[in-house]
Inverse folding.
């Protein structure tokens, strides 16, 4: 029994390592299909959450129709991996370069919206995994944008060198720092756990003469094995996220905010489907339930 449990734990770790999206692997051993948690009538496992986030290899690299979300905030990512453009009269902010091979796709989406990719002045990141920030060096090369990163993610970013290229970091940010450009202010909130410097960005945007709070959520997906340090980080992240003002919740993967369903409801003249305060904590609810279930499962494993 003891051997079985340790074996199971080891299998979890291996699964998570092989499938870590930062490794850029399309195939591999999926993460464990346990524990299962049910939130608002839907059941999730680590495997189903990762599958939901990543989709197929084609989903990861195929442009989703670029669209305005609210105010000056636009989606320029792929079917399953987010990239957001915040357009201002003084140039643009881009959140997430995603995989390096997606950068030309993002450039095209930006152009389709009527903006110039070369006008991107600031590049921000969600978290230091390859599916979100591998393309930073290429974006910097193509636009000359200033690259800013949360201090706690700097070591992981420096280790990310596609084709041997150094990861550019022009400015190191700390929890609570504001980034301003052309009348738009974004605030960086440290929500660690998924990575040490996982960053939730907040800003405001106008729609129909009203101002709304927008939250670009960082991943809250826990790994298969939770160390005491990780438990502390995740607890901090859940608490922080729940305390942020939010009318429009976005995320580093579209599935975290039902992007595809909301996009399908976008119609001229009707209410903006992305303004949905009721769903602002859904992702935190799902991941916190999973975090607690993984912790409970882990605590059942007898120590040798
Ligand atoms: Zn990640």
């Amino acid at each position: 029994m003891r051997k079985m449990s340790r074996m199971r734990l080891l299998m979890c770790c291996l699964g998570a390592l092989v499938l870590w999206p930062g490794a850029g692997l399309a195939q591999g051993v999926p993460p464990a299909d346990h524990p299962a948690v049910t939130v608002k009538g839907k059941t999730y496992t680590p495997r189903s959450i990762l599958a939901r986030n990543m989709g197929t290899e084609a989903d990861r690299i195929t442009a989703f129709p670029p669209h305005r979300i609210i105010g000056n905030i636009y989606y320029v990512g792929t079917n399953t991996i987010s990239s957001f453009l915040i357009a201002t009269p003084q140039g643009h902010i881009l959140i997430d370069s995603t995989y390096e091979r997606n950068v030309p796709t993002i450039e095209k989406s930006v152009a389709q919206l009527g903006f110039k990719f070369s006008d991107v002045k600031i590049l921000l990141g969600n978290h230091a995994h390859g599916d979100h920030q591998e393309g930073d060096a290429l974006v910097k090369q193509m636009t000359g944008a200033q690259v800013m990163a949360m201090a706690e993610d700097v070591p992981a970013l420096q280790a990310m060198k596609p084709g041997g290229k150094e990861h550019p970091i022009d400015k190191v940010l700390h929890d609570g720092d504001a980034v301003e450009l052309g009348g738009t202010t974004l605030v960086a909130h440290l929500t660690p756990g998924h990575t040490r410097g996982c960053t939730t960005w907040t800003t405001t945007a106008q729609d129909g003469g009203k101002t709304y709070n927008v939250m670009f959520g960082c991943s809250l997906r826990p790994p298969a094995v939770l160390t005491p340090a990780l438990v502390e980080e995740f607890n901090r992240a859940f608490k922080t996220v729940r305390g942020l003002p939010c009318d429009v919740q976005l995320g580093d993967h579209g599935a975290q905010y039902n992007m595809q369903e909301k996009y399908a409801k976008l119609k001229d003249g009707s209410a903006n489907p992305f303004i949905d305060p009721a769903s602002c904590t859904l992702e935190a609810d799902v991941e916190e339930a999973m975090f607690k279930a993984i912790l409970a499962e882990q605590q059942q494993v007898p120590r040798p």
About this structure: Residues 21, 127, 129, 194, 219 surround zinc ion (CB under 6 Å). The chain has ten helices and 14 strands.
